[in-house]
């Protein structure tokens, strides 16, 4: 039985991982670490309510747990907040990774870490794992630093880079692009969506599966996980409206300049997924196909 620690087990990815791993009886022993009470609606795993920035307590608890695998699903992902509160951003996105890497090396654990398309400047799009990063925001820089910590360490690691993760779990603190657009349109509210930024969103079930495959195959290195099609954020919203049969006339295009966001975003990302297909056996689908799968999961 593989013993797996998940940091951020209350989050969207964390809860999706719990469901995926715990549903395979006797294959994984799962230990969840998150702030506050267990929000997953499950009690068939060991849960620790813990402040992940409390280095002493975290280190002690991981050493006691002695896992084979550590999945770091905790991060500060609010891009503008990272720009404003750099200290807080560093604590979660950099210092936590440093600590997990040190402890993981000590107990010979495999580390799986989630990174982002925001490590790139968005000038070219369709990024492969070997393209040179050049982050435009503090968030992107913090995630690049976290990658470098792993790359320069002695730990065995998997870095999964991903884009705009969406889905739904038991009790959510934060929304995501699909739920937000769906909710606003269902309420008949007009929304503006940026037409000159391009992304390839990721269904959380696929990201969770990529983590599981990384455990099972002891995958090493960096892999891209997303849908296989890069669309403007405006077009993403249009497709959400179409799949959920909502009024797409409520969606109005807006330019990046008009948005006036604190942090600079890359204009076009999207991933080359050939390495992921070859080495993890994951066949990415289009965003629209993923939306239909998500819709089916809701009914």
Structural account:
The chain has 299 residues and is an alpha/beta fold. It has a domain of 207 residues: Rossmann fold. 40% of the residues lie in helices and 19% in strands. The chain contains eleven helices and 13 strands. The chain has a seven-stranded parallel beta sheet, with helices on both faces. β1, α1 and β2 form a beta-alpha-beta unit. α1 packs across α7, α2 runs parallel beside α4 and α4 runs parallel beside α5. The longest helix is centred in the first third of the chain and has 21 residues. The model has no long low-confidence stretch (mean pLDDT 97).
CATH architectural grouping of the domain at 2-165 and 201-227 and 270-285: 3-Layer(aba) Sandwich
Give the percentage of residues in beta strands. Answer: 15-25%
Order of strands, main sheet, comes to: 3-2-1-4-5-6-11
Order of helices and strands: EHEEHEHHEHEEHEEEHEEHEHHH
Euclidean distance between termini CA atoms: 33 Å
**What is the CATH superfamily classification of the domain at 2-165 and 201-227 and 270-285?**
NAD(P)-binding Rossmann-like Domain
Q: What CATH first level of the domain at 2-165 and 201-227 and 270-285 would be assigned?
A: Alpha Beta
Count of helical regions: 11
Largest sheet: 7 strands, parallel
| Low-pLDDT residue intervals, each spanning 5 or more residues | none
What is the number of strand segments? Answer: 13
The dominant shape is globular
| Strand-pairing-aware structural class | alpha/beta
Rg for CA atoms: 19 Å
| Mean pLDDT metric | 97
């Amino acid at each position: 039985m593989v013993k797996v620690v998940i940091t951020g087990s209350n989050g969207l990815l964390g809860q999706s991982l719990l469901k995926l791993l715990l549903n395979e009886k006797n294959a994984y022993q799962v230990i969840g670490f998150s702030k506050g009470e267990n929000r997953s609606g499950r009690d068939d795993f060991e849960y620790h309510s813990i402040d992940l920035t409390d280095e002493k307590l975290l280190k002690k608890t991981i050493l006691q747990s002695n896992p084979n695998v550590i999945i770091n699903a905790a991060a500060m992902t609010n891009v503008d907040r990272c720009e404003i509160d750099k200290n807080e951003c560093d604590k979660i996105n950099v210092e936590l990774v440093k600590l997990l890497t040190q402890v993981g090396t000590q107990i010979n654990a495999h580390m799986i870490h989630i990174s982002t398309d925001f490590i790139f400047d968005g000038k070219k799009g369709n990024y492969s794992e070997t393209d040179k990063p050049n982050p435009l925001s503090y968030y992107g820089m913090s995630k690049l630093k976290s990658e470098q910590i792993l790359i320069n360490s002695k730990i065995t690691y998997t870095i999964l880079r991903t884009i705009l993760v969406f889905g739904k779990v038991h009790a959510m603190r934060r929304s995501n692009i699909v739920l937000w657009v769906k909710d606003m349109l269902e309420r008949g509210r007009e929304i503006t969506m940026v037409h000159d930024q391009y992304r390839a969103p990721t269904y959380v079930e696929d990201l969770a599966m990529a983590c599981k495959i990384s455990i099972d195959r002891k995958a090493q290195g960096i892999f891209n996980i997303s849908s296989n099609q890069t669309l403007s954020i405006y077009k993403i919203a249009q497709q959400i409206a179409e799949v959920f049969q909502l009024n797409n006339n409520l969606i109005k295009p807006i330019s990046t300049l008009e948005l006036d966001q604190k942090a600079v975003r890359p204009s076009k990302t999207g991933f080359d997924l050939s390495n992921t297909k070859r080495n993890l056996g994951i066949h990415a689908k289009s965003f629209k196909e993923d939306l239909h799968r998500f819709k089916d999961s809701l009914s």
